[in-house]
Please model this.
Amino acid sequence: MLAQLTREAFDGQLNQIFLIKAGDANIEAELVDCRSLPGEPEEGGRQPFSLLFRGPLEPALPQRIYEVRNENIGPFEIFLVPIGPDKVGMQYEAVFT
Model:
């Protein structure tokens, strides 16, 4: 499933809510940015890209793999890294190479 996740799949999901499974809780996070990264894809691979999510300030989630779901994309697992709070909430980044 991870190989099927592309920037194009997320472009239409900007400003949509994703649920991050954190133990017994589901944390709501908004997809606030989706951008291509520099570099060439490996043969047959996808263009590198990153996603930026914004969730609540508390609880702040640690860096690790989470199950994430969205009604249009479905469930998938990604590695999320907290990159710090902004004026609205905590930001998390996922990088796809």
Notes: Residues 7-11 form the longest helix (5 residues). The mean pLDDT is 92. The chain has one domain: 2-96. Strands lie at 17-22, 25-36, 49-55, 64-70, 74-85, 90-96.
